[in-house]
Amino acid sequence: MGQSITFKKADHLKEKPGSAKLGFGKLFTDYMFEMDYSTEKGWHDARIVPYGPIQLDPAATIFHYGQEVFEGLKAYRTEDKRVLLFRPDKNMARMNQSCDRLNIPKIDEKFVIKAIKKLVAIEEAWIPSEPGQSLYIRPFIIGTDAALGVHPSATYKLLIILSPVGAYFGNSMSPVKIYVEDEFVRAVKGGVGYAKTAGNYAASLKAQTKSEKLGFDQVLWLDGVEHKYIEEVGSMNIFFKIDDEVWTPALNGSILPGVTRASVIELLKKWGITVKEKKVSVNKLFKKAEKQKLKEVFGTGTAAVISPVGFLKWEDHVIKVANGKTGKLSQKLYDTITGIQSGKIEDKLGWTQEVKLQKEKEAVAE
Amino acid sequence: MGQSITFKKADHLKEKPGSAKLGFGKLFTDYMFEMDYSTEKGWHDARIVPYGPIQLDPAATIFHYGQEVFEGLKAYRTEDKRVLLFRPDKNMARMNQSCDRLNIPKIDEKFVIKAIKKLVAIEEAWIPSEPGQSLYIRPFIIGTDAALGVHPSATYKLLIILSPVGAYFGNSMSPVKIYVEDEFVRAVKGGVGYAKTAGNYAASLKAQTKSEKLGFDQVLWLDGVEHKYIEEVGSMNIFFKIDDEVWTPALNGSILPGVTRASVIELLKKWGITVKEKKVSVNKLFKKAEKQKLKEVFGTGTAAVISPVGFLKWEDHVIKVANGKTGKLSQKLYDTITGIQSGKIEDKLGWTQEVKLQKEKEAVAE
């Protein structure tokens, strides 16, 4: 891909936050990546520019018909000061799957990874280095046509913004409380559930707000057809340890194919643990729990990596999982994946990609 | 509602387009209405300002999680130069229903109608006056928080933009060709199908594009659960004349409650025609057609008002409806509703609201 990336220097750099102040996605770095699409030119004008507001016509497609896809991944600082990305190729492949569903022109996956690396290298000083901290990377594409007919946009913008984020857990993982949502539905087969697109998250807000009011952390989504089968938890995939096996809902068109999900499955198989991707009915799950066979429950996602579930409610049934503590397997998966991400554990699976800081910075065409 | 609406004059007004150039939603007027929401102030700073780009932080909720609702209605020019809105109270009531589903703070319906009237009065010269033409009004609300956590935004913008639009049909109504979509799904119960929100339209683009490639104008959506029951056509509601009765899918949580749909049902009842809001299976519909009992099919919506369907395809079954022509009932409904909208037919139902041009213009606080 011959396209070059131009760089426009900011007049003024922001003060870096103290590491105690990092939350999730509230602070943004000094620069962002931007690229435009038109039917005539394709994706063009790749540039790294000062982070700042974007200007759009009020009739732009994104404001009316939600034509959008996004991704989320992280850059990690190792103890020896290198910077690693975790499986960015998986994120970019998924972004193109999402583009396909949302009628958005595909991206050159390798080129966008190159853009991410260049932007991260320029913003190296923003990557926090305490345990669990990282630089969150958010690429997204929006339709920008100023036209109200319900049609795919002819023009788009791809942006990448960066946010230094704190450790999801404090000193130790804390299991979350979830309940089975039986009124609201996140997605259904034939819809956009497998795509990482704005509308899925918009649809989830009401149930999430309800769960917080009821004193829970997240909702467990059921399928939209029979309201019987488990799909996801909040915005994570979900796993169940049943005796010595691990079950997770099979990808069915309405579940997001998580990068952490795929990584957990690969690790478990490598460790000789039976993983079953299958339809998991909530009824069967609660029966397994009654028989003391449900040993651990955990969510997987880029933000928390592994999020143990300590408490599960479905109608009048309540389960305390692993005595409300973090299970051994959950802990081992967390330690292994975060170990690979932070360079503490050797990456035998080729999951990480190093950002060559000096080389990337030098290659910026001013 | 004591809130006043400020007005900022544009330096330069655009040239008005010739009536031949009007399409749908491609041209916008000189001014727009804007209003902001914050937790502390509620909806505030109502203003009419020159139409132009809006600036948003790239982390704004709308770009990532699609928190958005919109409405669509029209202002019509009567022969005696008055300006009428068609049932704006219904649109605003629906906007609040959409807000509720999308976790967006509710609007003061009467105040937003007042804002619409003021804006339309100021832009009076943009209202086209040939038959079938009108000024399309698009109010919409977007979440604007610069934060990547998946939570409802704490800040919002409500905008109203105006677009002069051409006649949907030329000299006579032309029936459309539709096919039954059996792969993609628009919405499911428990989701956001009944709300007028961006994500529903994003999800529909792929099927719409497919239908155009196959030589059809629109798709007929089936329910997301059993893929058996008819929901909507494209972005319209749908009606079937079966012998002397009229059937339309009952509102079930995944169908948009159209203002034109409600108006058609009221008119039919007034005319003594039996209207059944019920589950309509595609199988039953095609059986009725086989027995020559399916007399007319038409879609209803703000854009076309009544859109006759002349050709219907489901798997290998094909129906030509009303010999591919516009049925008598479709024509009568179209003539009646557009007659009321344009002031040609006396509005005995109290559906229209006149925009008091002089009064509204005088009341603008500069």
Automatic annotation (TrEMBL), chains A, B:
Question: What family, per the record?
Answer: Belongs to the class-IV pyridoxal-phosphate-dependent aminotransferase family.
- The source organism is Sporolactobacillus terrae
Q: Which NCBIfam families does the entry link to?
A: ilvE_II (TIGR01123), PRK13357.1 (NF009897)
Pathway note: Amino-acid biosynthesis; L-isoleucine biosynthesis; L-isoleucine from 2-oxobutanoate: step 4/4; Amino-acid biosynthesis; L-valine biosynthesis; L-valine from pyruvate: step 4/4; Amino-acid biosynthesis; L-leucine biosynthesis; L-leucine from 3-methyl-2-oxobutanoate: step 4/4
Q: What is this protein called?
A: Branched-chain-amino-acid aminotransferase
Q: Which cofactors is this protein said to need?
A: pyridoxal 5'-phosphate
The record's Gene Ontology biological-process terms are: isoleucine biosynthetic process; L-leucine biosynthetic process; L-valine biosynthetic process
Q: Which UniProt keyword terms apply here?
A: Amino-acid biosynthesis, Aminotransferase, Branched-chain amino acid biosynthesis, Pyridoxal phosphate, Transferase
Question: Which residues in this protein are found as N6-(pyridoxal phosphate)lysine?
Answer: 196
Q: Which gene encodes it?
A: ilvK
Catalysed reactions, as listed in the record: L-valine + 2-oxoglutarate = 3-methyl-2-oxobutanoate + L-glutamate; L-isoleucine + 2-oxoglutarate = (S)-3-methyl-2-oxopentanoate + L-glutamate; L-leucine + 2-oxoglutarate = 4-methyl-2-oxopentanoate + L-glutamate
MF terms from GO for this chain are: branched-chain-amino-acid transaminase activity
Q: Which PANTHER family match?
A: BRANCHED-CHAIN-AMINO-ACID AMINOTRANSFERASE (PTHR11825:SF44), SUBGROUP IIII AMINOTRANSFERASE (PTHR11825)
Q: What EC identifiers does the entry list? A: 2.6.1.42
Its taxonomic path starts at:
Bacteria, Bacillati, Bacillota, Bacilli, Bacillales
